Amino acid sequence: MSTDLRFAKYHLPSGLGLHVAEQGPEDGRAVLMLHGYSDSWVSFSRILPLLPADWHMIVPDQRGHGDSDRPIDGYAPADLARDAIQLIDLLGIAEAAVVGHSMGSFIARAVAAQAPQRVERLVLVGSAATACNPITQDLLREVEALDDPIGEDFVRAFQASTIHRPVPAAFFERIVAESLKLPARVWKAALSGLLAADPEPDLARIRCPVLILGGDRDGVFSRDEQEHLATRIPGAIVKISAEIGHDPQWEAPDDVALDLLAFLQSPNTR
Questions:
Q1: CATH number reported for the structural domain that contains residue 119 in this entry
Q2: 26 inside domain
Q3: Residue 168's domain spans which residues?
Q4: What is the rounded CA–CA span in Å between residue 197 and residue 132?
Q5: Contact at 8 Å (CB) between 63 and 13?
Q6: Residues 237-264: tens digit of each pLDDT
Q7: Is residue 216 part of a domain?
Q8: For 178-226, what is each residue's pLDDT tens digit?
Q9: Could you tell me if residue 188 is inside a domain?
């Protein structure tokens, strides 16, 4: 297992600067991890030390998030997917396993749709067939009313609403701090872009093995929504864990790490 995290800011051909956490050798098995709404690479920090030292983990702060650049536009899942593809191009990676959480799961699916030959496995965490439901629509109404500076009480309440099992206090404070980096316009653009996107074409283009991980106490996407997603991807493996909320990699990192190991090391039967 590994703890050799390193950080760099990569400038994509589009001119966008992405802050990226990396772990493991550059010639190791590539695993690209895409975080959720208002998060950053920190969202995966509890599981990174539990993964094999010979995997090349690539964990960017996505456009507008964390310490990456915050352009005015380009926040639809298709745009963020192009950023991810440009990043692995820049790193000289021909093929990667892609892990996406929440918003990141929709971006991961868009990566697999835009560049199917580049994605060897897909892991969708805290996901659903569509991001648009009454919960996210209510959130969008709240977000549309935000102004700068974003209030810490709002961010704290939002992030707390996504978890069911308690997480370490120091980790939760880091999550809140990362979300506070986003200006109101990014909160608005990222969520409106996500909810406006049509995910059906992406689902139809997935050709690689897929693992769906979720919790039965997810406050964003219900168990029914998660299981419906599995029906939309033929051959997908689905695991819904008891007493886990929207953030399995925060709430049960050991279990998620074991699930990733089992899935990514299993024979490719698709």
A1: 3.40.50.1820
A2: yes
A3: 6-264
A4: 9
A5: no
A6: 999 999 999 999 999 999 999 999 999 9
A7: yes
A8: 999 999 999 999 999 999 999 888 898 999 999 999 999 999 999 999 9
A9: yes
